[in-house]
Amino acid sequence: MENENTFHLMISGQIETAEFPEIDEIYCKHCFVYGPDWVVTAGIEEGISQISQKGEGGHFALNFPLDISFKSTNPFGWPQLVVSVYGIDYFGNDVVRGYGSVHLPTSPGKHSRKVAMFVPESSSLLQRLTSWLIGRRPEFVDPRVVAQGEGREVTKVKSQGHMNIVFNIITKDLDKLNYDTG
User: Fold this and answer.
1) CB of 75 within 8 A of CB of 179?
2) Cα–Cα distance, 59 to 4 (Å, whole number)
3) Alpha-carbon gap, residue 104 to 130, rounded angstroms
4) 63, 79, 84, 163: which has the fewest Cβ within 10 Å?
5) What does the pLDDT look like over 85-124, one tens digit per residue?
6) How confident is the model over 6-25, as pLDDT tens digits?
7) Is 113 exposed, middle or buried (0-12, 13-18, 19+ CB in 10 A)?
8) What is the enclosing helix (H) or strand (E) of 7?
9) C-alpha–C-alpha distance, residues 9 and 104, integer Å
10) Cα(44)–Cα(11) distance, rounded to whole angstroms?
11) Taking phi first (over 0 means left), then psi (-120 to 50 degrees means alpha), and beta for anything else, what does residue 153 get?
12) Is 8 helix (H, G, I), strand (E, B) or coil?
C-alpha cells in the first residue's frame, strides 16, 4: 500500500525554441534537480537534444520533449529543470553557450516559461585571453549547481539568450495534504 502522505507531480512538455543572437548552431542538455524527499517514479531524468541551426527570425527550433513523474511527502526541494546549451566556437571546440534553470510550475495546466540563460566568465582579462587562446572557456563541472544558491554568489556571469519551455502539469493528492496550488 502506498504511503497516504505522498503526492504526485507529472510533467510533460518541451523545450520549444531558443534565442542566442550571436550563435548559429546549438544543442542542449537538460536534467532535473529536486529535494531529498522527492523520487522519480517514471520518465527521463536527463537528456540531450539534436543540433539545431538558427532559422528565420533568429530562433532555434528544438522541440525537445520532457516527460517525468515524481512523488514526494514534502514540497521542500520542488523540482527544477536545468538546461545547458552548447555549441561550436570559431576554432571547432565544443563550448558552453548558456545555463539556465526554472522551477516546475506548482499548479496544474499548461504553462509557458521564458528562461534567461547565462555563461560563466573569467574573473580577469589575462584569464579571459588565455581561455580564448586555448579554447577552454569557464564552465561548471556539474550544471546542477545552477539550481542551487550555495557557492554561486562569487561567480561572474554574462547574460546570453533565452529558452522557451512549455510545461503540462498534473498533480495528484496535493489537496488531500492541504496544499493549495491555486
Assistant:
1) yes
2) 46
3) 38
4) 63
5) 998 877 777 888 989 999 999 999 999 999 999 888 766 6
6) 999 999 999 999 999 888 89
7) middle
8) strand 7-19
9) 10
10) 11
11) alpha
12) strand
Identify the bridge partners of residue 53 per DSSP, sorted by sequence position: 25
* Residue 16 phi, psi (nearest 5): -80, -65
In order, the DSSP letters of 17-79 are: EEE-TT-SEEEEEEEEE--TTEEEEEE-SEEE---EE--GGGEEEEEEEEEEEEEES--TT--
Q: Which residue has the cell 556539474?
A: 142
Question: How many other C-beta atoms lie within 10 A of the C-beta of residue 20?
Answer: 21
CA distance 90 to 79: 36
Using the Cα atoms of residue 176, residue 177, residue 179 and residue 181 in order, give the sign of their dihedral.
negative
Residue 89's identity, in one-letter code, is D
Dihedral sign from CA coordinates of 71, 73, 75, 81: negative
Beta strand pairing call for 157-172 and 52-53: unpaired
Residue 151 in 3-state DSSP?
A: coil
Contact 65, 46 (CB under 8 A): no
Give me 61's grid cell.
Answer: 527550433
* Residue whose grid cell is 563541472: 141
